[in-house]
Amino acid sequence: MPVTVRTFASSGEAAAALSSDRGARYLGGGTLVMRALNEGDISISTIVRASDHALTRIEAAGPRVTIGAGVTFARILAERDLSFLHAPARSIGGPAVRNMGTVGGNLFAPNPYGDFTVALLALDAVVSVRGGLGSRDVPIEEFLQSRERQTGTLVLSISCQKPGSAEAFRFRKIARIKPKGGSVITLAAHLPMSGGRIVGARVALGSMAPTQIRARAAERALEGRSLDAPTIGAAAAAAVEGTSPGDNALASAWYRREIVGVHLRRLLSGQE
Amino acid sequence: MAKTALQFRHNGRDVAIFVDGGTNLLVALRELIGDMTPKFGCGQGGCGACSVLIDGELHLSCLTLAETVAGRSVETLDGIKDGPNLHPLQRAFAENFAAQCGYCTPGMLMAAKALLDRNPSPSRTEVVEAISGNICRCTGYEPIINAVLAASGGRARA
Questions:
Q1: What is the DSSP string of A127-182?
Q2: Do B57 and A97 touch (CB under 8 A)?
């Protein structure tokens, strides 16, 4: 069924069009919306686009990085200042999908996708959105919890602090097909160190619940401790707490629960 | 619903068509322009059979809104041969038995061309990565990887 395509010069106009039309979807790279159209999703009656350059801007020179929602994973990989995000960007799709898929779109990607968002959740990112009532910044965890209600808002950008060191941020995607494949589970950990102890531990999981979630029990096991074997063991044992994975063709919920601690242990131990 | 006029370069030639809103580039190429080289595989971005180059960059035409290529250059497999002469990648695919049923071949060739255009002497790992978005159910991939390496002059690094 043909849909109406509306292209705007500014993100403000696009946000207004999105918020005023329940059947409107924002088209970023196309990997979600065009797929839905190809599958005959009749809930989409209007496609909204914006040619606003602000949506594809990267500010990465300072300690805090801001990435426009329309930035592709290929551009993340080309940006030296975003090297901490290269592993999550590389874990997504093949080269064509990385040339098309965007950081903003990934926030809406359902399981077994959305791996980049797992990294952003561990980094305590902030999502800038624009809706009918203007712009606001939303913590990514809050954004994900209300994701189903966010289709009428336009994501403008995502920002986060750079990790203090390469060691402080770790990412791992478990897939059956390498180098490309949907996620069995995805893990990211941000472990800022102060005086040899972890301060502000963040562990995020993908494919372990309907949306990406934080493993709060594992975070509590890491907080204030040094990253030694007993601490890693305690975090690994706690990883499954609070999760609610589902079954799909890649893995069963049981299997995901069984392996999440194993892979968190490997991630924290620096094992391949 | 009104159709939208769309102009772009298709394999070096200017084309103008009218598309319905929401039409993807694959449908535009196959049904409106008559270029049958990009294939419909999954319609989900999972198989790579519809791969084309847009301004030299590898894209999936089934997930590309046709209107977004206005004024841009789209290259498909149909445009890579030079008259009766096959492109070196096509010759290497034939000589290395890199095609069986052939359905994935156009996408594989475009993914390989995207790689060789920016990296004429890739390693085996780089070739594997370059075709990682393209599914082949016949060959087991080895002949395809060998063909891309052969087309690059066989100067494979580990």
A1: EEEEETTEEEEEEHHHHHHTGGG-TTSEEEEEEEEPPSSGGGEEEEEEESSSSS--
A2: no
Nearest residue of B to residue A49, measured between CA atoms? B68
Pairing of strands A154-161, A193-194: unpaired
CA distance A133 to A149: 15
**Same domain, residue pair A32 and A72:** no
A163 touches chain B (CB under 8 A): no
Taking contacts as CB-CB distances below 8 angstroms, the residues of chain A near B134 are 94
- Lookup: tokens for A72: 């592709």
B74 and B8 within one domain: yes
Q: Tens of pLDDT along A177-186?
A: 877 789 999 9
Residue B154's pLDDT band (boundaries 50, 70, 90)? low
CATH number of the domain at B46, please: 3.10.20.30
What is the domain extent for residue A243?
Answer: 166-269
Structural domain boundaries, residue B125: 88-151
| A232–chain B nearest CA distance, Å | 33
Say whether both B26 and B60 belong to one domain.
yes
Chain A partners within 8 Å of B111 (Cβ): 94-96
Decide: A232 and A269 in contact? Cβ < 8 Å: yes
Closest chain A residue to B55, measured at CA: A99
Contact B1 A100 (CB under 8 A): no
> Which of A8, A31, A180, A183 is best to mutate for the B interface (most B CBs within 10 A)?
A180
C-beta atoms of A34 and B4 within 8 A: no
Cβ–Cβ gap A38/B44 under 8 Å: yes
pLDDT per residue as tens digits for the range A107-127: 999 999 999 999 999 999 999
Chunked mean pLDDT (size 10), chain A, 272 residues: 92 94 95 96 96 96 96 98 97 96 97 97 97 91 90 93 96 88 96 96 98 98 98 98 97 98 97 80
**Looking at the partner chain, which of B21, B43, B115 has a beta carbon nearest the beta carbon of A5?**
B21
Residue B83 lies in a domain: no
Who's near A113: CB < 8 A, 6+ residues apart? A92, A106, A182, A183
Which of B78, B103, B138 corresponds to the end of one domain?
B78
What is the domain-level CATH number for residue A253? 3.30.390.50
Number of domains in chain B: 2
